[in-house]
Design the sequence.
């Protein structure tokens, strides 16, 4: 069965409290989902900014169909990105599956 890929292109990240992420299209994200932001770090051929957010899991609060705020997955506090390097371009937002189905499970 496997996981269904739910990936979106990041088009913007604010330096604010709370941090707001904008994506190009919502593949089905909902408030309370967990996502991993990838390909944001400065070691990319072209630095993309927002290094402290790169490759970590975040809880999202959907604000519009294509914008959401980030919360820490354990403390549930809003992410304050005011002192992070500014977003430049690129990056991906990937849904982190929290429910898994195994062979023989009823769906």
Sequence:
């Amino acid at each position: 069965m496997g996981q269904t890929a739910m990936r979106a292109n990041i088009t913007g990240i604010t330096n604010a409290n709370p941090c707001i992420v904008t994506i190009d299209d919502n593949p089905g994200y909902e408030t309370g989902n967990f996502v991993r932001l990838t390909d944001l770090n400065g070691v990319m051929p072209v630095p993309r900014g927002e290094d402290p957010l790169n490759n970590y899991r975040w809880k999202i609060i959907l604000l519009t169909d294509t914008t959401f705020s980030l919360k820490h997955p354990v403390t549930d506090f809003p992410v304050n990105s005011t002192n992070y390097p500014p977003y430049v371009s690129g990056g991906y937002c990937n849904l982190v599956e929290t429910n898994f189905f195994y062979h023989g499970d009823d769906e």
